[in-house]
Prior knowledge:
This protein is mainly α. It is built from 10 helices and no strands. α1 (2-8) crosses α9 (144-203) and α2 (12-32) runs parallel beside α9.
Amino acid sequence: MFELVQSGGWLMIPILICSIIAAAICVERFWTLRTDQIVPRNLLARVWNQIRTHEMDARKLRELKTGSPLGEILAAGIANHRRGRDQMKEAIEEAAGHVIHDLERYLNTLGTIAAVTPLLGLLGTVIGMIKVFSAIRLEGTGNAQVLAGGISEALITTAAGLTVAIPALFFYRFFQRRVEELVINMEQEAIKLVEVLNTDRGDRSEPTKPEIAQIASR
Length: 218
């Protein structure tokens, strides 16, 4: 491995650094963007039951806010639901903006790595070919060792850059899609909360049991 890096020249160092950073981001995002951690199952139904039984106090609201990204969005809506539908939606949208920013953390870095590493490999190719033509100009074509060294450096850096860029681009797109799906799920849950809280506030003081079951089954 060390010989491969050495033969590829100094541009192999930033390519290797990019590969380490990309691998670390992928592991971190795989762990962070788990569906059960971002959108816990039946969370809205549990929250609605707490509201119905008047168990949703300040402590439980703080626990909901810190428990998960979806909980943070729901907590923002619950805290502002008495101010009306519009104010409630604005609070949810503001909280959602912070959540989406956290979900997309490091993805720009991963995309940058996917774009930069092929260019580093191309730069290594250009430098290697410059060495080859410089050797031909000074020594002719008789020194095969010098020519082979320059060509080898050019090919190794190009291959290394593409080896890092291709999986980085794949996982960048993959995580973008994962974030989009999670955002859609959270948006659907937030819409249900807005509808049921405002319906309950405007029409009656207590929700019915069929209404609770309907929320839980959605």
